Amino acid sequence: MSGPRFEPVRTVRAYERIVEQVEEAIESGALCPGERLPSERDLMGQFSVSRSTVREALRVLQARGLVRSRPGDPNGAEVQPFSPAALHKSMTTLARVEELSLGELVQFRMVLDASANLLAARLRTDEQLAEMDAAIAGMRAAVEVGYDAFSAADIAFHDAVARASRNKLIQICTDVVRSIVLGLVSGKIAAAPDREALMRQSIGHHEEVLAAVRAGDGPLAARLSRQTMYDYYVGYVPQDERPALRALLE
Amino acid sequence: MSGPRFEPVRTVRAYERIVEQVEEAIESGALCPGERLPSERDLMGQFSVSRSTVREALRVLQARGLVRSRPGDPNGAEVQPFSPAALHKSMTTLARVEELSLGELVQFRMVLDASANLLAARLRTDEQLAEMDAAIAGMRAAVEVGYDAFSAADIAFHDAVARASRNKLIQICTDVVRSIVLGLVSGKIAAAPDREALMRQSIGHHEEVLAAVRAGDGPLAARLSRQTMYDYYVGYVPQDERPALRALLE
DNA sequence: CTAGTGCACTGGTCGGACCAGTAGGCTACG
DNA sequence: CGTAGCCTACTGGTCCGACCAGTGCACTAG
Predict the structure, then answer these.
(1) Dist. CA A240–CA A43, nearest whole Å
(2) Residue A84: φ, ψ to 5°
(3) Partner B contacted by A163 (CB < 8 A)
(4) Which helix (H) or strand (E) holds B178?
(5) Is A250 on the interface with B (CB under 8 A)?
(6) C-alpha closest to that of A108 among A165, A153, A175, A62
(7) Rounded to a whole number, what is the distance in Å from the CA of A212 to chain B's nearest CA?
(8) DSSP label at A38?
(9) Angle between the B102-123 and B218-233 helix axes, to the nearest 10 degrees?
(10) Chain D: nucleotides under 7 Å from a protein CB?
């Protein structure tokens, strides 16, 4: 039997075709960030569809972070530079819907940050090293100011390390996962009675990590960074999840 | 001067409010996967907006993978179980728009896979070990069959390891990044003249990794897995990106 | 020459309409 | 009595026309 193998036909909605075409134009570089799409009324002519259909397509493109439209703008929707906002959104959703635990998130940060340090120890430039120095100086100055300033300086340090890894994926995932973790625990940290001691301890740890990066000792920097993050967050991770975190500390 | 600090008012579109409400209902668990939303005509009553507005909201929710609607379905849109499809989409966009290089992608896979192996060596169950055995047996059997079957068995192995890590984030990111990498190189691998030799070499490497996981030697499993992936993909990575990959091999 | 005012356009929203599907109840036939 | 087939009452997808509140720009009045 088995005649010609027919595939089930997928009915494609009109607005999906529009999304595909615009997406292709953007991803291929035919449309660059900052450029404008034609107005909705023009697009309905070009695609031979109604404005409702054009608008549904634009809503999807906007949800994916590719374009943005402003009411009243005499030009059409603006092509956006890529931002991890969409990535962030879907990962946040994942964290809430799939019940990603704080332990898993911290564990993932340990993996990413350790890798970034491992690579940074080999690939960092002197400028990046200076950025890390400045970030730690900022942390030290921020102890007196408050937790928010401290956290900002801490983020600056980890961002500098991530950039030094020269891997954009590591940078972006680091950023996304960190903001989710901080959203879960920053309130608790800010309210901790011994937060000043925690901050001072964290600064010492960061200095050790930076010394390893400066010395070009990647494995050491990775191990120290894992330990640093473990110590900083372990207090907020449920007891039964801690063994999984310790599994990363050799 | 400095009177009361006024914040700029953010004009919120009607459809965004709808998205927020439905999103909240899903993420809080008030709406579970498989449940149905009211029909669009019901929703326009509940939200006191027109159907166009309801539809734009549904388009956004659908783009985020939270709901799915079928024409003709007497029930409304169906709440979807979380799928990494949206994550996959935004990461693929990132890869195209931001010109994520193959080197960065492979490097990220090395990081993820090594971490998964490190954790799996400690946390794996006997069943998961059996799955990995079966996957390698499948790889061996598939050498004669062809590259597609081999690749499928290879994927099964890495999936088993990722599951054994007990970190959902690692599992999902592994899946997403792998499919992007395979989309870039699977054609080249399938066409490689020496692909049978490559497959046999890969099987040997996987066996070594599995032995380390079985023995509970996490660091060894991690190192071997990095080496395995490096050897498998290095031929497709441009010369100038290879040093960054080797930086992960200590 | 500048400050102010319209105007022509934008996107956001509304309401109504039609179509092609689907599901499930109803009917008529075996 | 059981079932095959039709029928209806819905669904989502698309279209149309309209109105509103914004925005940018050209034009005008001082």
Answers:
(1) 56
(2) -75, 15
(3) no
(4) helix B168-191
(5) yes
(6) A175
(7) 15
(8) P
(9) 150
(10) 9-18, 21-25
> Which residues, including other chains, have CB under 8 Å from residue A163's CB and lie 6 or more apart?
A128, A131, A171
Other beta carbons within 10 Å of B132: 25
Compute the distance between CA of residue A76 and CA of residue A70 in angstroms, rounded to an integer. 8
**Rounded-to-integer distance, Cα B135 and Cα A96, Å:** 32
Output the pLDDT for position B1.
Answer: 45
* CB-based contact B169:A105 (threshold 8 Å): yes
Facing residues of A238 across strands? none
User: Among residues A197, A231, A196, A209, which one has the least CA distance to residue A132?
Assistant: A209
Non-local CB neighbours of A127 within 8 Å, separated by 6+ positions: none
Query: Model-level pTM?
Result: 0.88
pLDDT (tens digit per residue) in B30-57:
999 999 999 999 999 999 999 999 999 9
Q: Is the pLDDT of residue A2 over 50?
A: no
Q: How far is the C-alpha of A118 from the C-alpha of A220, rounded, in Å?
A: 8
Q: Which helix (H) or strand (E) holds B79?
A: strand B78-79
**Token code pair at residue A33:** 């960030």
pLDDT given for residue A4 in this prediction: 54
Strands B78-79 and B67-68: antiparallel
Residue A28 φ/ψ, nearest 5 degrees: -80, -10
Query: Strand B67-68 relative to strand A78-79: parallel, antiparallel, unpaired?
Result: unpaired
Higher pLDDT, A62 or A94: A62
Judged by CB atoms closer than 8 Å, whether chains meet at A105 and B169 is answered as yes
| Sole residue written with tokens 């024409």 | B71
What would the two tokens of residue B70 be? 């079928």
Q: Which residues of A163-187 are buried (b: 16+ CB within 10 A; e: fewer)?
A: bbbbbbbbbbbbbbbbbbbeebbee
In sign, the C-alpha dihedral spanning A228, A233, A239, A241 is negative
Token duo for residue B212: 């380390």
Residue with tokens 């019940």: A99
Task: Check residue A96 and give its pLDDT.
Answer: 82
Give B64's contacts in chain A (Cβ within 8 Å).
Answer: 63, 89-90, 93
Residue at token pair 């379905």:
B73
Measure the CA–CA gap between A86 and B65, rounded to whole angstroms.
Answer: 12
Please provide the average confidence, as pLDDT, over all residues in chain A. 92
pLDDT at A3 over 60: no
pLDDT at A99 over 80: no
pLDDT at residue B4 greater than cutoff 60: no
For residues B176 and A28, give the distance between their C-alpha atoms in angstroms, rounded to a whole number: 21
For B247, which of A91, A93, A122 is closest by C-beta distance? Answer: A122
CB atoms within 10 A of CB B208: 16
- The pLDDT score that the predictor gives to residue B2 is 47
Query: What is the average pLDDT across B228-240?
Result: 95
